[in-house]
């Protein structure tokens, strides 16, 4: 039996669900399916807290949202993509409202907005501090209206099938039964999210292992701007659980061990009792995380068993505001830190949160590999540049999920021939993949390298070599260590021979993707000899527009070698300038 | 506090086991470790073949529901220290077929979900450009609690009715139907009546209230069911007493 659909979406989070609905609405003749390694409502979109940005107020404008985004991204954003993004974001958020998303409201019944980091106007829509949860469940529940959206829940895609330069589908394992199947398709949309699990300390869920980036990279599609890894300034120590930026937007302060609002020492403005937009605690995430490292070096942080921390102070907001606007923050602090932010300081430190880089796409979500599309965090359409602004990622996955869905639908409509006849070249790839999974992994004997040992060493390597601050030597060392880990992975140990819900096999496959993605990050970071946004090189501390006003495109060639190209950044109306916050 | 604790974990591999067995592991007891951290320690360092679901480890994705010392719990939000000196028993959720080890089959719930039409129904769908459907903060509060369900299945595991009758729609699905019924923007309550008022809908519930007791998000499905029973009873009374035009 051949499983076949016109459009196949890998990943059932916000971007994947939005894309699926777009396909279903676009052309009723097309068949569409979502393959996801978890049930869609388990996807990591669920963990987003603070909000979703889109211009809605009369005192705001699309140009201002665009400027905030581009300056926030240190001028690495594709400005044509940003213009599309800010223009379509309001419509997408309104559509979510019409689908039932419980956005928080003003007293008069209009949708409420709150301030957010790096944004000059109030434009961040929110559903208390569970915005991602509500957005994901609204999308998932709405998707159930469309009986034509087929789902492969708890199937794991291990490989993209490519036929003569064009995507032909995927190979996937059904976790419940262990059966390995080809699912053919005329178009494939990757919506698998990010890869925070490459690092030891991350807000990202366990499932965020860079699968889609790895799939695309191995199939020959380039990854873009992988060196730009966002550290969110406020994660809980030990768990890495996110304390939303909304906590600062509502008026929270970051203080060091002396109770001093240290951000005033880092060209981010002067403290005031109430929040000021684009200033102090509402500066961009890259600058705030960098300021933390400087405070550590000055000896002004608090030492804990889990490393240095600073404090987030919400006490002056009062119980009423905290319960109305930040209930999840209070719940998380109580559960995981045994503290009550109404009365106590929250210990926080920077934590890996988001990949600005990803699979290179144009503004239609189309990748250079024909028939392959991508949207959401897995993709890099370049609206985030060198540093994403908080609350831009949720509208991004809606705008570009929908665009990728429509583009994939249109592409699939134009492909001749039924997907049922599988060409010999594709069949050979399927057999090859089956062999790799069954013989090389499931039935292998004598593997000696534990999965967890390789994974832990990869994570330590990335934090030490490619963290908030990097250098040529730290990155070169990381590159060497990663190639040793790649070698060790070839003799990875698998003890679980079962076909039924084999999570050890899953962990091995995820680790393999993570190693490839980690290498792409390190190699791009090594080649970018400047500091821009989230990529800070201590040996090249200045931004260098002469050499690097360009995106990094890394390819993996058929022989396994890497190649990096630097196409110039698309500039439309905002020439590169200085990033100014708080002055 | 002792620095070690025993975890007794249910194992079941359908290819080789005829029935579930219990495996015992001694693991470090650290004050900030959740039960899930304990399971991850086993998987990473003691026995890589243990299978269970987890993801966000912050109590919002709903993946890691298991039975801990006899009670349905989110293992990422349940702490080992609270069970010291142990041992701690970790079993799969009750009332579901076991797939393997601590993994259960929730397909039944996934098939029931669309039957309650958990989406906003409007007689006329307006384009986004028409602006938002207004909703006062008080109107939002009406359904907010029922919108907090993370589909973690703890309520199904605790429900004595579902244990006996798998046809029962169950707490989370009914609460979700009420979430939309009570949303001031929704006009689809009548389309959900047949499913909710059927024998395996609300009337199957004997109001034991276990669902609300175990809910990690305070959704109160039992309250949702009671409330709908009242609505349904009033509707049928009205149908009896009032002339057709007045309903």
From TrEMBL, chain A:
Residue span, Fumarate reductase/succinate dehydrogenase flavoprotein-like C-terminal domain: 455-581
One Gene Ontology CC term in the entry: plasma membrane
Residues reported to bind substrate: 232, 244, 353
One Gene Ontology MF term: electron transfer activity
Domain FAD-dependent oxidoreductase 2 FAD-binding stretches: 6-394
Catalytic residues, chain numbering: 285
UniProt-annotated binding residues for FAD: 11-16, 36-51, 211, 377, 388, 393-394
Membrane topology, record value: Peripheral membrane protein
Domain of life: Bacteria
UniProt subcellular location: Cell membrane
Enzyme class label: oxidoreductase
Principal subcellular localization: membrane
Similarity section: Belongs to the FAD-dependent oxidoreductase 2 family. FRD/SDH subfamily.
Oligomeric and partner information: Part of an enzyme complex containing four subunits: a flavoprotein (FrdA), an iron-sulfur protein (FrdB), and two hydrophobic anchor proteins (FrdC and FrdD).
Name used for this protein in its record: Fumarate reductase flavoprotein subunit
The organism of origin for this protein: Planotetraspora kaengkrachanensis
From TrEMBL, chain B:
Residue ranges of every copy of the 4Fe-4S ferredoxin-type domain listed in the record: 139-169
Free-text cofactor note: Binds 1 [4Fe-4S] cluster. Binds 1 [2Fe-2S] cluster.
InterPro entries found in the cross-reference section: 2Fe-2S_ferredoxin-like_sf, 2Fe-2S_ferredoxin-type, 2Fe2S_fd_BS, 4Fe4S_Fe-S-bd, 4Fe4S_Fe_S_CS, Beta-grasp_dom_sf, Helical_ferredxn, SDH/FRD_Iron-Sulfur
Enzyme Commission identifier(s): 1.3.5.1
Pathway where it operates: Carbohydrate metabolism; tricarboxylic acid cycle
Every 2Fe-2S ferredoxin-type domain range: 7-96
Gene Ontology BP annotations: respiratory electron transport chain; tricarboxylic acid cycle
Entry's family note: Belongs to the succinate dehydrogenase/fumarate reductase iron-sulfur protein family.
Protein name per UniProt: Fumarate reductase iron-sulfur subunit
Organism the protein comes from: Planotetraspora kaengkrachanensis
């Amino acid at each position: 039996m051949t499983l076949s659909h016109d459009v196949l979406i890998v990943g059932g989070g916000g971007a994947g669900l939005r894309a699926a609905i777009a396909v279903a609405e676009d052309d009723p003749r097309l068949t569409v399916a979502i393959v996801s390694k978890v049930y869609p409502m388990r996807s990591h979109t669920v963990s987003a807290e603070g909000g979703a940005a889109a211009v809605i107020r009369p005192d705001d404008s699309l140009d201002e949202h665009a400027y905030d985004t581009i300056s926030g991204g240190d001028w690495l954003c594709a400005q044509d993509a940003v213009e599309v993004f800010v223009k379509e974001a309001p419509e997408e958020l309104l559509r979510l409202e019409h689908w039932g998303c419980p956005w928080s409201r003003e007293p008069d019944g209009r949708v409420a907005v709150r301030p957010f980091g790096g944004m000059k106007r109030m434009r961040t829509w929110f559903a208390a501090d569970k915005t991602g949860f509500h957005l994901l469940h609204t999308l998932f529940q709405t998707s159930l209206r469309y009986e034509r959206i087929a789902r492969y829940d708890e199937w794991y895609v291990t490989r993209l099938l490519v036929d003569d330069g064009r995507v032909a589908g995927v190979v996937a394992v059904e976790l419940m039964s262990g059966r390995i199947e080809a699912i053919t398709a005329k178009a494939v949309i990757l919506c698998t999210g990010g890869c925070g699990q490459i690092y030891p300390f991350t807000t990202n869920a366990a499932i965020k292992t860079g699968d889609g980036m790895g799939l695309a990279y191995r199939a020959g599609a380039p990854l873009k701007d992988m060196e730009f890894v966002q550290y969110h300034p406020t994660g809980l120590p030990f768990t890495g659980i996110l304390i939303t930026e909304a906590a600062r937007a509502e008026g929270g302060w970051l203080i060091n061990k002396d109770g001093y609002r240290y951000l005033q020492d880092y060209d981010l403005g002067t403290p005031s009792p109430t929040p000021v937009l684009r200033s102090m605690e509402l500066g961009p995430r890259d600058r705030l995380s960098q300021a933390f490292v400087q405070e550590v070096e000055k000896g002004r942080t608090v030492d804990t068993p889990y490393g240095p921390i600073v404090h987030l102070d919400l006490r002056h907001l009062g119980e009423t505001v905290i319960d109305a606007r930040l209930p999840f923050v209070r719940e998380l602090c109580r559960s995981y830190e045994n503290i009550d932010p109404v009365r106590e300081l929250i210990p926080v430190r920077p934590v890996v949160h988001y990949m600005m880089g990803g699979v290179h796409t144009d503004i239609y979500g189309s990748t250079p590999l024909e028939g392959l599309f991508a949207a959401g965090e897995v993709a890099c359409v370049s609206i985030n540049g060198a540093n994403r602004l908080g609350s831009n990622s949720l509208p991004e996955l809606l705008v570009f999920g929908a665009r990728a869905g429509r583009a994939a639908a249109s592409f699939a409509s134009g492909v001749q021939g039924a997907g049922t006849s599988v060409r010999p070249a594709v069949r050979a790839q399927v057999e090859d993949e089956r062999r790799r999974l069954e013989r090389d992994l499931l039935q292998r004997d004598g593997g000696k390298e534990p999965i967890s040992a390789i994974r832990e060493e990869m994570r330590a390597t990335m934090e030490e070599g490619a963290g908030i601050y990097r250098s040529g030597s730290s990155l070169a060392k990381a590159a060497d260590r990663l190639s040793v880990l790649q070698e060790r992975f070839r003799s990875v140990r698998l003890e679980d021979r079962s076909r039924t819900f084999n999570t050890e096999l899953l962990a091995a496959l995820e680790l393999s993707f993570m190693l490839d993605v980690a290498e792409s990050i390190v190699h791009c970071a090594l080649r970018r000899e400047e500091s821009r946004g989230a990529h800070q090189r201590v040996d090249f501390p200045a931004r260098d527009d002469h050499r690097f006003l360009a995106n990094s495109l890394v390819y993996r060639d058929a022989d396994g070698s890497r190649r990096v190209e630097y196409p110039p950044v698309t500039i439309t109306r905002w020439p590169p300038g200085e990033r100014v916050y708080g002055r | 506090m002792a620095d070690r604790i025993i975890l007794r974990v249910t194992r079941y591999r359908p290819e080789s086991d005829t029935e579930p067995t219990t495996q015992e592991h001694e693991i470090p007891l650290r004050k900030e470790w959740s039960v899930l951290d304990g399971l991850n320690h086993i998987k990473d360092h003691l026995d890589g073949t243990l299978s269970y679901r987890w993801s966000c480890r912050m109590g919002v994705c709903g993946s890691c529901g298991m039975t801990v010392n006899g009670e349905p719990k989110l293992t990422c939000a349940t702490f080992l220290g609270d069970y010291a000196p142990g041992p701690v028993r970790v079993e799969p959720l009750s009332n579901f077929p076991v797939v393997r080890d601590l993994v259960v089959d929730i397909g039944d719930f996934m098939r029931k979900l669309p039957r309650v039409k958990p989406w906003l129904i409007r007689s006329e769908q307006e384009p986004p450009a028409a602006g938002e459907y207004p909703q006062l903060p008080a109107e939002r509060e009406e359904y907010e609690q029922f919108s907090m369900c993370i589909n973690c299945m703890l309520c199904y595991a605790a429900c004595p009715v579902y244990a006996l009758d798998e046809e029962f729609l169950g707490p989370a699905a009914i609460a979700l139907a009420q979430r939309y019924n009570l949303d001031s923007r929704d006009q689809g309550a009548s389309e959900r009546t047949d499913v909710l008022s059927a024998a395996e809908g609300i009337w199957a519930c004997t109001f034991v209230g276990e669902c609300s007791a175990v809910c990690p998000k305070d959704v109160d499905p039992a309250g949702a069911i009671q409330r709908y029973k009242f609505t349904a009873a009033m509707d049928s009374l009205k149908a009896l007493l009032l002339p057709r035009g007045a309903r």
